[in-house]
């Protein structure tokens, strides 16, 4: 194969991967819409039965070619941190808000709006959902600082309830690195009042030793994700 033929082939692979990722995000959007409507609906009972039947029919072909537990999604890129089905940030995940995270200098910043599907106390977020968002934020901050690890402790203080259907702002920052152990602090506030902390968390993350990474992730280690968690 000539260089230009090889180049065209690589481009075609990239295009196919890009199209697959777009399709996965599109399906994720549709599923999240479905979940939100299914949670909020007061449609007639017969409409619920018809919808359930149509949804089962739509799901069947997706299940025909499914991956197993140790097989990463073909559209993911573990090395680049592309995890399309991450339950917090994944564009393809039916129940990810999804939380969007980026780095601003030393600070990790996240944004999302929680729909009715995340309700705990009426009109507010479930406490476990807040902890899940913060675990992801703190884990991301640890990784972004060059110290990826797994959560060994997550202390969560709930100061005020987190409102649903309200843009949220989350932050996280590494406060201590001690060998394999990284301590990260973070919080949830509304985007409108970022100074008023609703939930605050401190997490401890531990970097894996090589043999631990092999033991836990050995089945996918060949795909280059030995030391990352999440
Ligand atoms: C851009 C990137 C995007 C990347 C974005 C990624 C985001 C991911 C966010 C989600 C992350 C997750 O949910 S991870 C999933 C939830 N977590 C887990 O399932 C972890 C389960 N735990 C384990 O498997 C294990 O604890 C290990 C393998 C992590 C560590 O085992 P170990 O190596 O035997 O640990 P051990 O020697 O006891 O402890 C190591 C050190 O940590 C300390 N340590 C241990 N436990 C604790 C604790 N609860 N609180 C404080 N400190 C502790 C010990 O004192 C010790 O310190 P010293 O004596 O050395 O000083």
UniProtKB/TrEMBL annotation:
<feature type="domain" description="Thioesterase">
    <location>
        <begin position="124"/>
        <end position="186"/>
    </location>
</feature>
<keyword id="KW-0053">Apoptosis</keyword>
<keyword id="KW-1003">Cell membrane</keyword>
<keyword id="KW-0966">Cell projection</keyword>
<dbReference type="InterPro" id="IPR029069">
    <property type="entry name" value="HotDog_dom_sf"/>
</dbReference>
<dbReference type="InterPro" id="IPR006683">
    <property type="entry name" value="Thioestr_dom"/>
</dbReference>
<dbReference type="GO" id="GO:0006631">
    <property type="term" value="P:fatty acid metabolic process"/>
</dbReference>
<keyword id="KW-0963">Cytoplasm</keyword>
<dbReference type="GO" id="GO:0005737">
    <property type="term" value="C:cytoplasm"/>
</dbReference>
<protein>
    <recommendedName>
        <fullName>Acyl-coenzyme A thioesterase THEM4</fullName>
        <ecNumber>3.1.2.2</ecNumber>
    </recommendedName>
</protein>
<feature type="region of interest" description="Disordered">
    <location>
        <begin position="58"/>
        <end position="78"/>
    </location>
</feature>
<keyword id="KW-0378">Hydrolase</keyword>
<feature type="compositionally biased region" description="Basic and acidic residues">
    <location>
        <begin position="64"/>
        <end position="78"/>
    </location>
</feature>
<dbReference type="InterPro" id="IPR052365">
    <property type="entry name" value="THEM4/THEM5_acyl-CoA_thioest"/>
</dbReference>
<dbReference type="GO" id="GO:0016787">
    <property type="term" value="F:hydrolase activity"/>
</dbReference>
<dbReference type="Pfam" id="PF03061">
    <property type="entry name" value="4HBT"/>
</dbReference>
<keyword id="KW-0443">Lipid metabolism</keyword>
<keyword id="KW-0809">Transit peptide</keyword>
<dbReference type="GO" id="GO:0016020">
    <property type="term" value="C:membrane"/>
</dbReference>
<comment type="similarity">
    <text>Belongs to the THEM4/THEM5 thioesterase family.</text>
</comment>
<keyword id="KW-0472">Membrane</keyword>
<keyword id="KW-0276">Fatty acid metabolism</keyword>
């Amino acid at each position: 194969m000539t260089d230009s033929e090889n180049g065209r082939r690589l481009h075609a692979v990239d295009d196919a991967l890009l199209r697959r990722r777009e399709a996965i995000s599109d399906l994720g959007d549709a599923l999240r819409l479905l979940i939100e409507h299914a949670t909020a609906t007061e449609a007639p009972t017969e409409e619920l039965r018809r919808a359930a039947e149509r949804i089962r029919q739509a799901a069947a072909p997706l299940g025909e070619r499914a991956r197993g537990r140790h097989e990463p999604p073909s559209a993911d890129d573990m090395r680049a941190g592309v995890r399309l089905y991450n339950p917090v940030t994944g564009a393809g995940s039916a129940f990810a808000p999804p939380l969007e995270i980026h780095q601003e200098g030393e600070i990790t910043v996240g944004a999302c709006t929680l729909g009715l599907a995340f309700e705990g106390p009426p009109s507010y977020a479930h406490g476990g959902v807040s902890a899940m968002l913060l675990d992801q934020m703190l884990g991301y901050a640890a990784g972004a600082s060059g110290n990826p690890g797994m959560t060994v402790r997550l202390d969560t203080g709930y100061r005020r309830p987190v409102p649903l259907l309200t843009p949220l702002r989350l932050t996280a920052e590494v406060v201590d690195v001690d060998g394999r152990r990284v301590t990260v602090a973070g919080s949830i506030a509304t985007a409108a009042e970022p100074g008023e902390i609703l939930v605050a968390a401190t997490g401890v993350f531990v970097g894996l030793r090589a043999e631990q990474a092999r033991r836990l992730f050995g089945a996918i280690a060949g795909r280059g994700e030995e030391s990352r968690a999440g």
